[in-house]
Design goal:
InterPro entries: Class_I_gatase-like, GATase1-like. This is Cytoplasmic protein. The chain is of the alpha/beta class and 248 residues long. It has a single domain, classed as Class I glutamine amidotransferase (GATase) domain (Rossmann fold, 3-Layer(aba) Sandwich), CATH 3.40.50.880. The strands form 4 sheets. The chain has an 8-stranded mixed beta sheet with strand order 4-1-5-6-14-13-12-9. The chain has a two-stranded antiparallel ribbon with strand order 2-3. The chain has a two-stranded antiparallel ribbon with strand order 7-11. A hairpin with a 2-residue loop joins strand 13 and strand 14. Helix 1 packs across helix 8.
């Protein structure tokens, strides 16, 4: 059993209803991490979810805090949220360099998984911005300098290129369609285990004594529709395999 921290994968939606001359605003809070959490827990892993709104204040800031986990998962949470604690951003007081700490922790033997989304990799309007951080060199892929999203409204299927690799969890058969992903480029020395539209979908590699992996589509809607993240038994195999490979 591994202890896994999922950071991100939640959001607040606010909408304005306009009815004639009157209007009102409503808000909702959505947790997108549930399919991934359930899948990992079904394989015996302990999962801690740190929602996106708590990441700036509570993301682990040093090797000791990171060491409470075997694998860190960053999913749909931008580099700004990890880097800029309230102490730094609101009080202009030097604090911990949490991305540098995460880089060092992986180099010393930790496991890192980045899952795709609008605020993963380079992201929507390049706002995820991991290419501008030292975490870029930890990933088994190289990131684009511009908005890297590829929307696939008609859906597209993964092409598995490394079925025998343990990080895919022994999944067999065709994968359900996905509706988008972040475009990246494979890094020299990395292993691409699955592609989508000829771009990396699943890639793994090493950094120092540690391991890193990417799943460039999402773990929940909209890019990962219900047939993929809820109905397919291969979902738990793939993500379980990634976590177990990262945690050795």
């Amino acid at each position: 059993m591994s202890r896994v921290l999922i950071a991100g994968e939640s959001w607040v939606t606010q909408s304005t209803h306009i009815k004639g001359v009157d209007s009102f605003t409503v808000s909702s809070y959505v947790v997108g991490a549930d399919p991934l959490r359930r899948a990992l827990e079904s394989r015996g892993h302990e999962v801690v979810h740190l929602p996106a709104h708590l990441v700036p204040a509570e993301f682990p800031g040093d090797a000791e805090a990171l060491g409470e986990y075997d694998v860190i998962v960053l999913s749909d949470i931008g580099a700004n949220s990890v880097q800029l604690s309230p102490q730094v951003f609101e009080q202009a007081t030097p604090g911990q360099d949490r991305i540098a700490a995460l880089r060092g922790w992986v180099g010393d033997g930790g496991g890192l998984l980045m899952v795709g989304g609008y605020l993963s990799f380079t992201g929507f309007e390049a706002k995820a911005a991991y290419r501008n951080t030292v975490l870029h060199e930890v990933l088994p892929v190289e990131l684009l300098p511009e908005d890297d999203r590829v929307e696939l409204p008609a859906g597209a299927h993964a092409q598995v290129t490394g079925a025998a690799h343990p990080a895919l969890g022994g999944v067999e058969g065709d994968w359900p369609a996905l509706l988008g992903y972040n475009r990246v480029r494979p890094r020299d020395g990395a292993e691409v285990l699955a592609t989508i539209n000829a771009d990396p979908l699943v890639a793994v590699g090493t950094f120092g004594s540690g391991r890193s992996a990417v799943f460039t589509s999402d773990c929940s809607p909209h890019w990962a529709p219900t047939p993929f993240c809820e109905d397919w038994d291969g979902y738990a195999r793939v993500f379980g395999g990634l976590i177990e490979w990262l945690a050795r």
